[in-house]
Each structure stands twice: as structure tokens, then as C-alpha cells.
Design brief:
mainly beta; OB fold (Dihydrolipoamide Acetyltransferase, E2P); four-stranded antiparallel sheet
Amino acid sequence: MKEYKVKVNGNEYNVEIEEVGGTVSNVVATPVSRPASAPVSAPKPAAAPAPAGAAGAKVTSPLPGVILDTAVNVGDTVKKGDKVVVLEAMKMENVIEATADGVIKEIKVKKGDSVQEGDVIAVIG
């Protein structure tokens, strides 16, 4: 019988493997100790929109990804919550919404662009 110490997802196990006639016939895994549960932090909030002012309200990317589609054009009127762009992140499509009512003054991305968390996508005036 051979004994191994294996660590899986932060948990340590003693593993005993019994070999009979060249084949493994019995495997026993017992936890060595249970680690104290790691504190769970709250999910990171989306980037807060910049306040409207002379520069306008900024629509920012809440996470890194690739722009799949832009739903608005410069000069379009939007309401808070309207779709501005579709962002692909971690193989999921995320709708990025307008952060304020107003008119789209500037679009800083186009289809296929890569963005990082906090990058400005559009400006609403």
C-alpha cells in the first residue's frame, strides 16, 4: 500500500492506494484537516458612472471584454438604462446601459474593440 498526501482546492487529503496484482484495487482518501473557511467578499460593484457635468455622464465598462455591438450613435437620445453596447466577457454577453438621460455626445469604442474595467465607452451630455 502506498500513501500520498494530496491537496485539492485547498483541502489536504491522505490517500492510500492498494495495489494487487499490478492493478489498483482500493483507494481510500481521508481529509487531513479542514481549513477554516475563507472569508467571502461581496461581489465587486460595477464601476460607478461619473457625475454629469460639463464633460457629461460617462458610460464605463464594468469588466474587461470585447465590444460585440453598439446600439446607439452619436446624437441619439437615451434614457437611463437604455442599451448602449453589448460586451462579451468570459463568453457571456453583457448589456452595458446608459448611466443617465441625455444625448450621446461621443462613442469611444467600435465593434471588435477590447476594453478594460473602467474604460469609457460613451459620453452622454
